[in-house]
Every structure is written in C-alpha cells, then in structure tokens.
TrEMBL record:
Family, per entry: In the N-terminal section; belongs to the enoyl-CoA hydratase/isomerase family.
Origin species: Falsiruegeria litorea R37
Catalytic activity: a (3S)-3-hydroxyacyl-CoA + NAD(+) = a 3-oxoacyl-CoA + NADH + H(+)
Compartments (UniProt record): Peroxisome
Sequence ranges assigned to domain 3-hydroxyacyl-CoA dehydrogenase NAD binding in this UniProt record: 291-467
Coiled-coil regions, chain positions: none
Example GO BP: fatty acid beta-oxidation
UniProt protein name: Fatty acid oxidation complex subunit alpha
Length: 698
C-alpha cells in the first residue's frame, strides 16, 4: 500500500489515514492508497471503514503539482466510485478543510462527521473548471438543486454548522477526527445501519435550467465555469447517475481545455509566487508591533483599520483634535462593518477602538512605533515636510513608509538621514478591503525593510507585489497609459459610456470612467496638472475636457457628479449629460472629425496599450516578472481573473499580432504607440511572457 495512506484494523473497523502533509492533497499516491486500502479492508473482513486525515486537515483538494500534467490512473472519479461501491459502511471524519476533490471523497463515503471548525466546499470554479469527480452529481441528490447551485457556482467554503443544516454532514462533534470517526462507525455497526450511497438516492426535481444558466452566466460577468457547472447539476436531475457522471466529465474536460481555465490557473499560481523573492531569502524582517498612520482620511483610516484587524496597535496622527476624531469615526465605521457581519465581537470592537487605537496631533506620539505610514495629500513638498519631521522623532530602525500613488520614493527618502529605512507601501482604497499592496523599493531601501513591508502585507492578508521606483510604479503607470489610450479614443469619436460598456463586457469589474468617478476625478486632475507643469512632450496628445468637470467641483461619486450622476446612497450612476458636449467642444477646437469605434476595436486598443506599457515596466525592471504585473492588475485594477492578467492574456491572443497592431497604430501616432523593446524581443525570439516567468522561477 502507498505510504500516503496509513492502514490499521481496529476490531472490525478498518482505518485509512491520509498521511500526505501539509494538506493531504489528493495526488497519485493518495488516490492509489485509498483504492488499495478499500480492497484490503474488504479482504480483512472489516464491517466499516473510517477515512480521516492526519495533521491539520482532511483532504484539502487536488495536488496542485499535478496541474497541467496528463491524468494518471486511478482518476479521482473512479476513486470516489470505488469508495461508494464498497459493501462495507464507509465513514469520513472531517477536520480542517474538505474542498474540491476532498469533499468529493467525503460524498463518496456513506456517512460524514466533522469537528465544528471544519469547512467544506467545491471551489473548482475559482480555477476555471467545475467539480469533476461526482460533486455536481452527488451534492444535488443530497441537498437539492438550489443549495448545490449556490455552493458550486460561488466556490464558497461552508462551515460545519451550515453544512450540517444543509445535510452535507450527518454529525458535528468536538474531538479528534479519528476518535469521533471511530465512535460513529462503531455506533453505525452496532445499530445495524445500512450503507447509504448517494448515487442511489432519488434525483432532485428539475428546474428551469436554461433560465438558471442565464442568471448564473450574467452574475459571473463572462466567466464560463459557473454557468457550465449548472449544466452538470442539470445532468444530475435529468440523467441516470452513471450517465450524469459521464456528462459531468465531458463538461469538466471542456473547461480544462478553455483559455479561461489557463487564465485562472495562471492567476492561482502567480498569486502564490509573487511574494517569493530571491533577494529576501534568509532576510529577517524588523520587529513589528505598533505602527503610526499620518492622515485619517479615507485611505489613512482604511490602513489603520487593516492594521488593527491584523493585531497591531495604531497611533493615528492628524492636524487637529477635530480631524483626529473624524478619523476615529471613519475607523469605527469600517470596524462596525466587521462587527455587523459577525467578524468581530462587541468586546473586540471596543478593545480595538479604545485600547489598540491612539489619537494624536503631535509627532512625538510616533516616537516609539516600529513603522509609520503617511497617507497625506499627494504633493511632493507636503510629503517631504512629513518625512523631515519623522526623521527627527522616530526611533532608530523604525520603517518610514509613504503611501504615495505616483511620487518618487528616492526623492522622499533623500530628505531624511536614514534613506535605508524608507520604503513605499502603496495601498489601494478602501485599504481594509482591497487585497493589493505595492511594496515600492527605493535605491537605498535596506533588505530587511523590504522584508518588513512584505511581512506587514502578510499580516494584513494582502497580496504584496514588489515594485521599483518610477512615476506610478507598476499599476498606476500602466493605468495612466491605458487611460490615455481611452482618452485618445474619446477625442477621436468614442464615448466614455461606450468604452465603459465594452470593457465591462470584456470582463472588467468597472470601466475606466466609472473607476475614475469612484477614485475621485481630482486625483487624475492633480496628476495631469503636475505633468503639464513638468512639461509635456510636444508630440503628446493632451485632453482637457475632464478638467472642466473638476473646475466645476465635480469629482465623481463623492460629489454626486462626474462622468456619471449618482443619487444619494447609490453606487451606480447614469451618464452625465454635460460630458458629451464638453467632449464635442474640445474636438471642435482641435479640429477632430469624430469617427465610429466598434467595441472590438476599443478593447483591442485598450488592451494593446496596457500590454505594451506593461512590457516596458518589466523590461525596465520596475516589475521583476510578468506575473508581478498580472497580479497587480488582477488585485488592484479589476482585471478579469479568468483572463489571467494582461500579459497572460497577451500570450494567449498572440504576441506577434499584438505587436503588428501596435506598429500599425504607430503610423498614426508614433509617440504614444512606441513598441516596447521587450515585446519586440519576445516576438523576434518566438517566446512569451510566461517563458520569462518560468526562467525567473528557476
């Protein structure tokens, strides 16, 4: 028998224990061990089999090391069928997580018991596929169509209490999984309980699956896996079990061959690789227990909230007592959401807001913090003034961090006597919700300061990406370019509303003009004014219609009007009728005759601009690897996860054709459409961005 599955016979109960740390993934050795263990239990004359996991979990899911490899027998569907078809009573005792194939093994068992902290789920849609080992056939027979559609199409994890109420679990008990499993198996034997294969249960009643498919597809914003899973559930209602299993496998294999599956697998692995930097190997981060936050606006309050929730104490510094109290109110509002959702108890809420949080208007209050993050107005002189004061009051070894979105961290660090302690920590608003953190490494930043930035991100449960210093770092530099591309298309004849729709149809969570309204139009206005003051290249096409909105005090959602008009309390808006006349006026002044754009051309130009600038960012070393760009755009800019990120998308659509388009458009505007040298190099060598990711991993 495989060493990945332990075997012992305790009286008339055979015990199969998963021994494949760290998460008992269902690799080949585990699958073979389960098949062999079932055969041995039957040969030994056992009356029941207990399956459980040693260590921290039951089977947490598939073995990610096998992703992309040819399938090897025994395949998981056959393992589940082998378990279910045994003449013995089979009990699974769950702890930790039983996800994907793990839950499918449990559903192949006849009875399921779990500890209260266990979680179950079928999250396959989150990597672009669907249950492929009977999950879409057994779960509906057990808990019905509605609950199965919810669990399978969302990919969410279900706690033990809910799983018991739904009927996924038969019992929930405190204790060691082995002990409660053995006791339950003993009880079943002694009571004369019969086998209970889910495959032999009555199929659930069919619903209007065509309508359900449409609802799920619309909700998924173009992701095909959830809606395809609906067809698998439909098979459980309309086909005999064996034929349903064939249909599930057919749908599963269709998804395995899709571009979306490629994109989501790329995203899955990239988010795990992004924080693994050779430069940090063996580097110990600095101590981190208390942080300071300067500026209690939306961003600063969000950063403070994230820090408090991660167990850090926070000193919030504001210019006046009134501003400090307003900041506290924002933090309490953020934490109140967690309290309302049951993520915090009332006692925890009070501890965080009265004990862990300190308000101050004096820089001396920051003298003992381990790290301070400024979140003040995006102006270099203001930032320098803050850092000069921090340099004077902060203890030796304290990390001095700027939350700047665009400004030069080297210039900020140069105004201190400790540039090695200075780093950029660019959070995304709202900072207690958004998952991305850009860790911006300046020329003099010490390695242990970089490690501390990544440690902070991990404590806050962020996806942290290393970025170099340039205007906008990784994300905002690329954003500036593709947003400029959108502005060019508007001058030439498109509308903000056509562009937003084309890009949400492509899969973005929001279009660029709706995003600008959400972030605040004053941010882009400030950047445009700064760049104009620094001097634009005479070849650059500039547009000013958006400046008129800002000059009139219209900054988007926070003022109720921008590209869209927002009713009080509503996040979605309707087009602002003042915008198109502003655009028409600017076209007239510039002598531009508007032309029509197809949605396809809008997407192609927008994406080509994004990819071309991203290639420059990688080529210049601002991002170390293409996957760093992909993760940044996925987690900070609403890029559709099922497309993997802009550079994965570029690989899939083909780099030669993209480069050819860029060169064609360069005939009209050779300043904006300058091909990235790295893109030209990859095309010339017949290579892809993913080849660079693989080289970096070696």
């Amino acid at each position: 028998m495989s060493e990945a599955i332990g075997y012992e016979l305790i009286g008339d109960i055979a015990v199969l224990s998963a021994q494949n740390p760290p998460v008992n993934a269902l690799g080949l050795d585990v699958r073979q061990g389960l098949v062999d263990g079932m055969a041995r239990a039957e040969a030994d004359g056992a009356k029941a089999v207990l399956i459980y996991g040693e260590g921290r979990t039951y089977f947490a899911g598939a073995d990610i090391r096998e992703f992309g490899r040819p399938p090897t027998e025994p395949l998981l569907p056959n393992v589940c069928t082998r378990i279910e078809s045994s003449p013995l009573i089979v009990v699974s005792a769950l702890h930790g997580t039983a996800l994907g194939g793990g839950l499918e093994i449990a559903l192949g068992s006849h009875y399921r018991i779990a500890v209260p902290s266990a979680r179950v789920g079928l999250p396959e849609v989150l990597i672009g596929v669907m249950p492929g080992a009977g999950g879409s056939q057994r779960l509906p027979r057990l808990i019905g169509v509605d609950a199965s559609v919810d669990i399978i199409t969302s990919g969410r994890q279900v706690g033990a209490k809910e799983a018991l109420e739904l009927g996924i679990l038969d019992r929930v008990e405190d204790g060691a999984p082995r002990d409660i499993g053995l006791a339950y198996a003993r009880e079943l034997i002694d009571s004369g309980a019969e086998r209970r294969p889910i495959s032999e249960m009555r199929a659930p009643k069919a619903v209007d699956f065509d309508a359900l498919y449409d609802v799920v597809f619309k909700k998924s914003r173009g992701m095909i896996a959830p809606a395809t899973a609906v067809r698998g559930i439909q098979a459980s209602c309309e086909l005999p079990f064996v034929q349903g299993m064939y249909r599930e496998r057919e749908l599963f294999m269709e998804l395995m061959a899709s571009d979306q599956r490629q994109g989501m697998i790329h995203a899955f692995f990239s988010e795990r690789a992004v924080g693994k930097l050779p430069e940090l190997k063996g580097i110990k981060p600095r101590d981190l227990n208390a942080i300071g936050v300067i500026g209690g606006g939306t961003m600063g309050a969000g950063i403070a909230t994230a820090a408090l929730l991660s167990g850090l104490s926070v000193v919030m510094l504001e210019m006046s007592a009134e501003a400090a109290e307003a900041a506290k109110g924002r933090i309490e509002g953020n934490l109140g959401g967690a309290l309302k959702r049951g993520k915090l108890s009332q006692a925890q809420f009070e501890d965080l807001t009265t004990k862990a949080l300190t308000l101050s208007t004096n820089y001396e209050a920051l003298s003992d913090v381990d790290l301070v993050i400024e979140a003040v107005f995006e102006d270099m002189e203001v930032k320098k003034k803050v850092f000069t004061q921090l340099d004077a009051v902060c203890k030796p070894g304290a990390v001095l961090a700027s939350n700047t979105s665009y400004l030069d961290i080297n210039e900020i660090a140069a105004c201190t006597n400790r540039p090695e302690d200075v780093i950029g920590l660019h959070f995304f608003s709202p900072a207690h919700v958004m998952k991305l953190l850009e860790v911006v490494v300046a020329d003099a930043t010490a390695p242990d300061v970089v490690a501390t930035g990544f440690m902070l991100g991990a404590r806050m449960r962020k996806i942290s990406v290393r970025a170099g210093v340039c205007d906008g770092f990784i994300g905002n530099r690329i954003l500036s370019t593709y947003r400029t591309c959108a502005d060019h298309m508007i001058l030439d004849g498109a509308s903000p509303y056509q562009i937003d729709k084309a890009l949400t149809d492509f899969g973005f969570a929001m279009g660029p003009f709706a995003v600008a309204d959400l972030a605040g139009l004053d941010i882009g206005w400030s950047v445009r004014k700064r760049k104009r003051a620094e001097g634009l290249d005479p070849r650059a096409r500039d547009s000013s219609y958006a400046d008129k909105l800002c000059e009139d005090g219209h900054f988007g959602q926070k003022t109720g009007k921008g590209y869209y008009i927002y009713d009080a309390g509503k996040r979605a808006g309707v087009p602002n009728p003042d915008v198109m006349p502003m655009i028409a006026s600017e076209r007239l002044v510039k002598g531009i005759t508007a032309r029509e754009f197809t949605d396809e051309e809008i997407v192609r130009r927008y994406m080509a601009a994004m990819v071309n600038e991203a290639a420059k960012v990688v080529g210049e070393g601002i991002a170390r690897r293409p996957l760093d760009v992909d993760v940044t755009l996925l987690y900070g800019y609403g890029f559709p996860r099922y497309r993997g990120g802009p550079l994965k998308w570029a690989d899939m659509v083909g780099l030669p054709a993209l480069l050819a388009d860029i060169k064609t458009w360069a005939e009209e505007d050779d300043y904006f459409w300058q091909p990235a040298p790295l893109l030209e190099q990859l095309v010339a060598e017949g290579r892809t961005f993913d080849d660079l990711n693989k080289e970096a991993a070696q």
